[in-house]
Predict the structure.
Amino acid sequence: MRQDSLPQEAIQVEDRWYVLATSSHSGDPMRVLKHGESFALLDRFGDMPRLGGGEHGLFQQGTRFLSRYELRIGGQRPILLNSNVRRDNSALTVDATNPDHEDANGNMRHKGTLHLQRTCVVFDGALTERVEISNFGTAEAAIPVSLDFAADYADIFEVRGYHRAERGELLTAEVAARHVVLGYRGLDGVSRHTTVSWGEPPARLTAERAEFDVRIAAGERHVIDVRVDTRREAPCAGTQSFIGACDGIDRALRAARASGAAIESSDAQLGEWLARSGSDLAMLTAGNPEGRYPYAGVPWYSVPFGRDGILTALEYLWVDPAMARGVLDFLARTQADAVEPARDAEPGKIVHEIRHGELADLGEIPFGRYYGTIDATPLFVVLAGEYYQRTTDRATLEALWPNIERALAWIDTHGDPDHDGYVEYARRSRTGLVNQGWKDSEDSVFHADGRLAEGPIALCEVQGYVYLARLHAARLARALGRGGHATQLERQAEDLRTRFERDFWCEDLGIYALALDGDKRACRVVASNAGHVLWSGIAAPERARRTGATLMSERSFSGWGVRTVAEGESRYNPMSYHDGSIWPHDNAVIAMGFARYGMKREAAAITQAMYDASLFSDLHRLPELFCGFARRGDGEGPTLYPVACSPQAWASASPFYLLKACLGLSFRPEEPRIRLLHPVLPPCVEVLTVRGLAVAAARVDLRFVRHDGEVGVQVLAKEGRVDVSVMH
């Protein structure tokens, strides 16, 4: 997209316009720690290197408060032994040892005699680290230890490649005996500070380096505590600070997972994937000032995104409805109430993203509070309906109903400006997003010959979302005694379904068109968007089955998942962001669409593909997306997309939704009853156990066992009254 008012670097943004990749990951896995609005990106050594991909750092509210953090022993980098983020994401632990080192007197200390254990945590706006050095040699060790540090106060957009004509000024560092205060005054008039402190005074301390003359007797150890705080007035490093941070992050992560069901598998690898995914959702939620709202992903989208939060909550709803309630509450509070073209805001519209930081505050980027999304508003209504269907939480329904009515009013007015019955978009903000569906790259909506579609654009999946939103709203209206309104909504949904079948179906392609352009011409492209059409239930059954077959053909299904755009389409590129790549959340939604129409075998195949991809992912963590190249021989994993977010909320929630699709799981809390429709298990698992699955006031433990081609369901334990029904 071209935006003459912005520097070129901000125009050529990598798919979402503001995402410009100036370099790719070096291949060294990134270690991520997060709490609230703070997150840290470290390398495997626990460092934030000065050289490399340039993304490492400690970030707070979209600003990098620490850009360099490098530990050296004897002037050299330690030899790495092991590096891992704990399963619950509470800490990074690094084991290393000393390289060969010759001291000032010419005495040689051979490698492998000193053990370094680094433990890093992020909590309450600070990175806290303990470095323990143990001497396993036979003589006293005298060795210098240094820590280099710096803060550039780059906005997250600058880290990603945005270049500014002007920046604020770095402030003179304040150096004391045990701490250094770095600072920056932005063009927004805000002064930001980083306080680096140590539990013991360094032997030598400057604005860029702390040096310690460490002496450790044989068999003894030495501890160096460090704290990097994003506030000027901050607690000093030390034992109390370190223990407090560890306890604090443990409590926060436990609280974020306290109310959900637990899932166990006979397959250890599936268990690891589910455990890491659940931990990532907890980390992306814990400490957020918005409440129980998962941030979209680290590093580029560690803020609230409307669409991302809704779909993540939908995927995770059967496990823990509390996340959905938190998402609905926050989005209701931030629903637009006025027409603001600069923000693409209109009354009743649900927010796209909310950011803080110097660029957002100055308006250099339009995303401080931005509403340029066509699908978050109908999806908000869908989530409200799914949440009520899962919980029958009437108090929440009554509180949300005015917001639901405003969202429906937006769908009927601003969402359909030409009154043709389709919800469509055309940006009003001069610097906003050109495309406003979940595939918001500038080139993601196109015709068969490669020409970009011109707006207003009606995406196929959005019409499905609107259809489902009206059906859910009708059920909610009836629950509130508004029968007349419910009937009207059902009539609108049926009218939309009829028009949609007429205008979007492509008989020769065996799939629904990607979109209608501003002239109502169909974009006759085979794309994964049609899988979302099945998810919504708007598709006719026979056409749904044909769409499923098209999406599972070799052109679309790579062996690792369904591609965003099928191979052979004019703009197909397996390395693109939205035109041939594979997204886990996209595949989870497609699998649920398949399950809706009885295509359980296809849903299980997608689940198996995602599981297989997780085996090749660092920490069993599926990234935001990966490249769409065809699956090759055994032992070769999917090709990584170089700057994908990892963790990313809707990718983390995807395995739970995939399992729901396979199990055919639904809830009737008013009875109360749990229903399982034609349950299947993917090939990777023989036994699956779900513990503490809540419905109404009851809880139940279920075990699913594959036997002679079918899946048996056992009720292991029950608290309260609930029935479990299975249809094979």
